[in-house]
Amino acid sequence: MNNTLQDLYAVVMDRKQHPQEGSYTCYLFDKGLDKILKKVGEESAETIIAAKNAVKADTVGEISDLVYHLTVMMAACGITMDEVLAELDVRAQKIGNLKQLKTVDHNT
Question: Is the pTM of this model over 0.90?
Answer without folding.
Answer: no
